Amino acid sequence: MPYDDSPPPTRRARPLSVAAALAAVCLTAAGCGAGPEADGPGAAPPRPGADGASPTAPAPAGTASPSDSAKPLPKGPLTGRTVVIDPGHNPGNRDHTREINEKVDIGTGRKECDTTGTSTDDGYAEARFTLDVSHRLRTLLEAEGARVRLTHDGDRPFGPCIDERARIGNEEKADAVVSVHADGSAVGNRGFHVILPAGVKGGGADTSKIVKSSADLGARIAGHFVRTTGSEPSNYIGGKTGLDTRNDLGGLNLSTVPKVFVECGNMRDPKDAALLTSGSWRQKAAQGMADGISSYLKG
């Protein structure tokens, strides 16, 4: 499938209240469920570490991948704020099944270090999708002045493990962390949803200080995502609100800063897959997330 990583346009987000975000996500936007859009011509080659490019040297464990900005960030409404983007999975995980199957502590129990993620029926991998969207999201946020760090950039053989992903956001003292994903559910299950951390306390996990702020972040992202992409909230998770709360994800349980997961669509459904494999739709997905993050950070 095409891998369109061309430099995206940028624009500033408009503030959206939590109430408005929740209202917006429950409305059916015009054009929801529209078919795929063709990727534009002139796509640039992938960044280092993306599919088809030579990877850089692996980053030391426990550190975030640095921003690729060659110039100082512009001054903008997000100047002084730090956002960590967590591209779900890693294209190399499939070649390191032993390592990613090792269990790690998630505070309330133990869970596999990571998984390979899902893919569309024709082989477009979730790990490839998440890196592409994360690159687009980084560009949009940096244009508003935010300092952006990725938990990885395809620059390591596998992982990071889910506990390390949480630790990177914590050590960066991020103002917001967003983990980018796509789901792998049954055909006919469509739409996006945002996963929020539940109130968890046990072992090394204590989300009591981030539950409320994460819910605010998630609601704003959901509201802007439905408005910008035209996709409807999930018809199979979250009661059509686009929001789901979970207590079994180490990346959320171990976070000490506001964090959510965004499942952008269902890769196993042909109609959703047509959107997820479209570069122009992925740009809309990144814009929706950027607008939601910006709205949250500007309060």
Walk me through the structure.
The chain has helices at 18-25, 97-100, 126-143, 162-171, 211-229, 250-253, 270-276, 279-298, and strands at residues 82-87, 103-105, 110-112, 147-150, 176-183, 193-197, 201-202, 205-206, 243-246, 259-266. The protein is α/β, with parallel strands linked by helices. Helix 5 crosses helix 8. The protein starts with 17 loop residues before the first helix and ends with a helix. The model is unreliable at 1-63 (pLDDT under 50).
Concise account of the structure shown:
This protein is of the alpha/beta class and 299 residues long. 30% of the residues lie in helices and 15% in strands.
Fill in the keyword field for this structure.
single chain; 299 residues; alpha/beta; six-stranded mixed sheet; two-stranded antiparallel ribbon; 8 helices
Oligomer designation: single chain
Element pattern in H and E: HEHEEHEHEEEEHEHEHH
Uncertain ranges: 1-63
Helix fraction bin:
25-40%
How many β strands by DSSP? 10
Count of DSSP helices? 8
- Give the DSSP E fraction (strand runs of 2 or more residues): 15-25%
Termini separation: 39 Å
How large, in whole angstroms, is the Cα Rg? 17 Å
Largest sheet: 6 strands, mixed
Q: Kindly state the mean pLDDT as a whole number?
A: 84
Provide the structure class.
alpha/beta
Tertiary shape: globular
Biggest sheet, spatial arrangement of strands: 4-1-5-10-6-9
